[in-house]
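Repro case for the chain-ordering regression, as requested:
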Amino acid sequence: GQNIDQPTEMTATEGAIVQINCTYQTSGFNGLFWYQQHAGEAPTFLSYNVLDGLEEKGRFSSFLSRSKGYSYLLLKELQMKDSASYLCAVRDIRSNDYKLSFGAGTTVTVRA
Amino acid sequence: ETGVTQTPRHLVMGMTNKKSLKCEQHLGHNAMYWYKQSAKKPLELMFVYSLEERVENNSVPSRFSPECPNSSHLFLHLHTLQPEDSALYLCASSQDREYTEAFFGQGTRLTVV
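-- result from build under test --
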């Protein structure tokens, strides 16, 4: 299976930038996802990377390096509402079947 | 609002009870999923249905029994659960299994007493 590692917690100040790293090990990589989950709410999709490079979407950007088994989610101009858990998930293909595995999530706390 | 609705939002049940969780999506998606989310642990995929056919069962105990009567509805039938089964149960759907985005419901917070 995949080993997906991400930091447990991060704290940053409103207006600052935070980078959440995710490392993974998989044999049939087929995409990496980032989800945001506020306490007591459903996870919501943030980004999808399948090729190397940076995908930018407003204040959020996601980077992937397949050769290094590494991704990061960059949150710019932090707002209080960005306080949430951020989940890294990796999909791979094994025997023509798709498998999606999640990391344990990184809880980001934004302080005034 | 993600388009995926789960009921109930909260459920407390005894170990001898039988209950069912319901998930409904009107997004026209063909794949639906059950996940278990325990505190401080990764989301665990439990079951996958594609075009109403179960395509994945990740070694889930038989006390959890899924049902997918049509492409819009997914159930998780629960019986003789254990306290360690207490968790947030999330339903998700996607266009197909090669999706680039999945939509999650709000989850059912289950407490087994």
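Ordering looks correct now. Residues 14 and 113 of chain B are 5 Å apart (CA to CA).
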